[in-house]
Each structure stands twice: as C-alpha cells, then as structure tokens.
Amino acid sequence: MPASPAPVSRRLLVAGGLGGAALALSGCDLLDDVLGREDDPGVSGSPSGAVTPTAPAEDADSTLVEDVVTAISATSALVAATTTAVPALAKTTATLTRLHAAHVAELGATITAPATPPAASGPRPAALRRLLRAEADLQTRLVGAAQQAQSGALAQLFAAMAAAIAQQRAVLG
C-alpha cells in the first residue's frame, strides 16, 4: 500500500494562494511593460484615443476655480479693509488673511484686488459682524462650488476650504 501524502497546513495553502494571485497580477503588468503595450485607456497615445471615464476634461472646472478665486479675493479685501479701519481686530484678521492666501495659492492663483475696494468702518462689534457675515457667505460659496465641481479632488479641496472657514468662524464668534 502506498504511503499517504503529508497533509498541507491551512496557512501554507492561504499563503500559496495569495502569493500566486500576487504573482499573476504583477506578471500581467510586467508582461505589458516588456512588450511595450499600453492598453490603459487613460494613457495618451493609446490606439483608441479614449480617456479614463472618471477623469473630467482638463478645463471643465476652470471657470469654477476662477469664480472661487474671485470670491476669496473679495473676502480677503474686506479682511484687509477691516484691519485698516479697526486696528483692534488685527490679530483676528491676521489668521483670516493667511487662510485666504493659502486657499488661493492651493488653487494656483494669487489674490487680486477687486475693482472697488470694500469700505469697512464702524465700531469693532459691527465690523466683526460684517466680516463674519462675509466669511459665512464665502463658506456657502465654497460648499456650492464643491457640489458643482466635476473633479472629485477639486470638490474635496473646496469642501476642506469651507471647513477651514467654518472653524475660523467658530473661533471668532
């Protein structure tokens, strides 16, 4: 009578299965690299000229980004005017100034001064209320932009910007 084969442990079977799957998956990519094939539809120069279905056109959100930069610039101008008119708010507005500059830089732009600079005057409480109202409007605009964005990454960026403004508003008032 022939000897029965030694039993295979469950760990060895699972490890072998996972290793084989990893080898098969990486082998397909390596084979494509060796043969020089580019079957990925998102790769330029592919035979069909197709693009990845989840990637929006390059300029799909450019107008939206310009509108958001304009809104941030206008709010930033109000922050600057408030700082000039009510110097007691300088510490409060310094954080907002840095935040707006960082947001515009993240969008690959620079803050531009509006054609008509906003006037900020009045006592400190009124100026702060006006500033917080402008920040709330900007936050609402960013939430709307996040919903309109074609790119998921851009939508996430706008949502994060809105959250940062919400945090600052909570701290300020």
Distance between the termini: 88 Å
- Helix share of residues? 55-70%
**Strand and helix order:** HHHHH
Task: Give the rounded overall mean pLDDT.
Answer: 78
Shape: elongated
- The count of strands amounts to 0
Strand content: under 5%
Total helix count? 5
Which radius of gyration do the C-alpha atoms yield? 28 Å
Q: Regions with pLDDT < 50 over 5+ consecutive residues? A: 41-48
Major pleated sheet: none
Q: Which structural class should the secondary elements be placed in?
A: mainly alpha
Write the layout of secondary structure elements.
Blueprint: H1 10-35, H2 62-85, H3 90-106, H4 124-148, H5 152-172
Helix pairs in contact: 2-3, 2-4, 3-5, 4-5
Give a description of the structure:
The chain is mainly alpha-helical. Helices cover 65% and strands 0% of the residues. It has five helices and no strands. Helix 2 runs antiparallel to helix 3, helix 2 packs antiparallel against helix 4 and helix 4 runs antiparallel to helix 5. The longest helix has 26 residues. The radius of gyration is 28 Å and the shape is elongated. About 5% of the residues have low confidence.
